[in-house]
């Protein structure tokens, strides 16, 4: 079967036109003219462009219509080609592409379905279908100036992790107020590493008590300045967090996921130690973040996941070190007392 027989030629044309539309949307929404409205985080790009992509792909697909849902795979293929193209030509960072990928896949299918519904009972060559697909193609760019007049809402989110540690509060407290250097082996593998988030390295403390300043450092020059405003020894420590933007290279994060940037910030962190029986401590770590996008419920799924994964890994390091210290202290005490 020749690759470029009529049906395959239609499919290839449909995918390439959908790809062209998506790339046009990417460059248009990344332009400075729309930066004030949110740029690539505007609904026009995140929602209307993939819907338009799906409609365009379906419009230029082979004329024969069936009741099968297999046509959706054409729009998915176009989305995957767009994501690969954006990655190869460094149009967006891997983190952003992973985040928008599921959204584009779902909404491109929605676009294909909507186009089919709006053109049902018509011959594929009916000129009215051209007006329908033109509407899908123009809608993102027509809606963008209107959308840019409205500020993105702020969503303040809390992410909490808990771990049970076989060590007394004294040992745990010692390991949270300051965190000595953490190796990659201490942390173990994680998906957040693979998608490009820096690993935590260490946390220092200028002095113990309210007003003390922790410097929490991560790989690739990422540093957070944490000013202690709650200090309850062996019970709770809480601090305000400000990213040290002077030390963070511009290549570390994509601008859309930069901590302390326009769209996302980490505001506070708190450790709480709770008694959990003789020689055991329940350690709770929670943080507060600000998320300022037009799709906060969706974006929040990703920021919550990343923050939870980072916090969980830190808790595991603290638990392992605290339990090792407690075991060492127990052994030393047994030697001093002469017990076997």
TrEMBL record:
- Which organism is this protein's natural source? Hymenobacter chitinivorans DSM 11115
Q: Which UniProt keywords apply?
A: Membrane, Transmembrane, Transmembrane helix
* Annotated SUPFAM superfamilies: Bet v1-like
- Out of the domains of life, which is the source? Bacteria
Query: Mind telling me which residue stretches traverse the membrane in this protein?
Result: 40-60, 72-91, 97-118, 130-146
What is this protein's name? Polyketide cyclase/dehydrase/lipid transport protein
Gene3D superfamilies referenced in this protein's UniProt entry, alphabetically? 3.30.530.20
């Amino acid at each position: 079967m020749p690759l470029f027989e009529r049906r395959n030629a239609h499919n290839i044309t449909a995918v390439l036109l959908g790809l062209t539309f998506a790339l046009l949307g990417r460059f248009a929404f990344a332009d400075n003219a729309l930066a004030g409205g949110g740029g690539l985080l505007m609904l026009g790009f995140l929602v209307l462009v993939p819907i338009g992509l799906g409609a365009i792909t379906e419009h230029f697909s082979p004329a024969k219509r069936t009741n099968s849902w297999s046509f959706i795979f054409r729009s998915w293929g176009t989305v995957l080609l767009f994501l690969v193209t954006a990655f190869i030509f460094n149009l967006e960072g891997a983190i952003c592409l992973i985040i928008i990928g599921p959204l584009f896949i779902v909404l491109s299918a929605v676009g294909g379905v909507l186009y089919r519904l709006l053109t049902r009972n018509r011959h594929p060559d009916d000129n009215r279908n051209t007006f329908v697909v033109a509407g899908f193609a123009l809608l993102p760019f027509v809606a963008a100036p209107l959308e840019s007049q409205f500020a993105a809402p702020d969503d303040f989110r809390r992410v909490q992790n808990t771990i049970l540690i076989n060590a007394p509060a004294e040992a745990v407290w010692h390991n949270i107020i300051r965190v000595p250097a953490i190796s990659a082996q201490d942390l173990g593998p994680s998906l957040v590493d693979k998608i490009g988030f820096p690993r935590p390295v260490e946390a220092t403390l200028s002095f113990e008590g309210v007003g003390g300043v922790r410097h929490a450092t991560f790989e690739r020059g990422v540093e957070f300045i944490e000013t202690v405003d709650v200090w309850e020894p062996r019970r709770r420590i809480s601090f305000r967090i400000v990213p040290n933007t002077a030390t963070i290279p511009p290549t570390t994060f994509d601008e859309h996921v930069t901590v302390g940037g326009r769209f996302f910030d980490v505001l506070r962190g708190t450790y709480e130690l709770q008694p959990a029986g003789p020689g055991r401590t329940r350690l709770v770590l929670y943080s507060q973040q600000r998320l300022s996008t037009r799709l906060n419920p969706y974006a929040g799924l990703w920021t919550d996941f990343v923050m939870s994964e980072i916090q969980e890994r830190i808790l595991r390091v603290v638990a392992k070190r605290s339990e090792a210290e407690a075991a060492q202290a127990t052994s030393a005490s047994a030697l001093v007392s002469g017990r076997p």
